[in-house]
Amino acid sequence: MAEILAMGSALPERKLDQSQIQLFMSSFYQLNPVEARKLGFLYRQSNIQQRHMVVPDYSGLPEDQSFLPPHPGEGPWPNMEVRMAFYRQEALPLAEQAARHCLHQAPDSLPITHLITVSCTGMMTPGLDLLLLERLGLAPDTFRTSVNFMGCYAAVHALRMGEAFCRNQPKSRVLIVSVELCSLHIRPEWSEDAITAGLLFADGAAAVLLGGYEADTPPRFRLRNFYSRLAPQTAHAMSWDLSDVGFRMHLSSQVPDHLAQDLDALFAGALKHWNVEAKQIRHWAVHPGGKRILEVVEKGLSLEPEALVSSRHILGQCGNMSSATILFVLQHLLSQNPAPGYLFGLAFGPGLVSECLLLEIG
Predict the structure, then answer these.
(1) Are 222 and 360 contacting, i.e. CB atoms less than 8 angstroms apart?
(2) pLDDT tens-digit series, residues 304-332
(3) In sequence order, what are the residues at sequence separation of 6 or more whose Cβ sits closer than 8 angstroms to the Cβ of residue 274?
(4) CA 12, CA 201: separation in Å to the nearest integer?
(5) Tens of pLDDT along 94-138?
(6) CATH code: domain of residue 263
(7) Domain-located, residue 38
(8) Which helix (H) or strand (E) holds 180?
(9) CA distance 170 to 163
(10) d(CA 14, CA 52)
(11) What's this model's pTM, rounded to 2 decimal places?
């Protein structure tokens, strides 16, 4: 078994209001007045107030224009090499900041035995795991691995791996670090996918420290179990592909509907797998993939509005940071001194796959 010992997070310094990003998108893609009004309506309805970006251009200020051409088709578009160089430059310090914040909260100074890095917005070799290991001054023989390109549910997958390490080696200290730079992957074409990505996604990093524990030492936040389910016939609804000019996301507007149709089976399957009753779930940490996603989960599971306060808070203040987002939600919820009981965690991504976790709060 494993417990959460500490958590930390980091955001890029560049914080932009949602309205500021909307004006940039309208200007950059040279939308006509009707298109611009429609886009403004979508941004106002998003329940997102602000987002953090590493790409400076989103501010819309002339002095910040350095990564993108003035408009699509009016200059060289950043290719994969340029984007990955930017990723290498920006991802490592942000990941290090989140990791150090996490380790500063740790209740002991025992050495890190395992390092798991998570990212789906960039790739490089040597990987983030090796670079972070050196930046943090971890032992050169620290076990390390990476969860790459899995999408928004990847951090739950990493927690599952970390719990397995702790279960097999109770003296383990597993550091998980997720960093996502979604702003790197703006597309040259104006499309439904470009609208959705520009509306929702942002940058951030989060870290969590797991430790094994002895049976006679009750943990505060104990990872009890996990559950994964693929929603049948939904692979077309969400995808994340490589292209010559960067990563290309496809995110169907039907994703909330697909999730709604599978939600009963997902929830029932998780509870059965965990041998837990619905009435035992007291807290909810749901990946805020967007406003409609949270509405679907709230309605489908008959939750009270306050059940998703942490998810809505992170959506409003940070947007969707892909895999790091669920860790931000967990950190916010656990920092509120929640009452003892079970927490149901849920994140989802390409597939359409849902990853669930059961956390016991002591």
Answers:
(1) yes
(2) 989 999 999 999 999 999 999 999 999 99
(3) 224, 225, 227, 358
(4) 13
(5) 999 999 999 999 988 899 999 999 999 999 889 999 999 999 999
(6) 3.40.47.10
(7) no
(8) strand 173-181
(9) 10
(10) 6
(11) 0.96
